[in-house]
Amino acid sequence: MKTTPVPIAPHGTPHAEGVSNDEFRAAMSRLAAGVCLITAHEPPLTADGPRGEDVGMTATAFMSVSLDPPLVLVSLREGSRMDDLLAEQPLWAVSVLADHQLQVAGRFAMKGRISDRLLFADLPYVRGGASGAPLLTGALATLECRTENRVEAGDHTLVVGRVLTAGLPAPDSGPLTYFRGRYRHLGS
Question: Please, what is the end-to-end C-alpha distance for the chain in angstroms?
Answer without folding.
Answer: 55
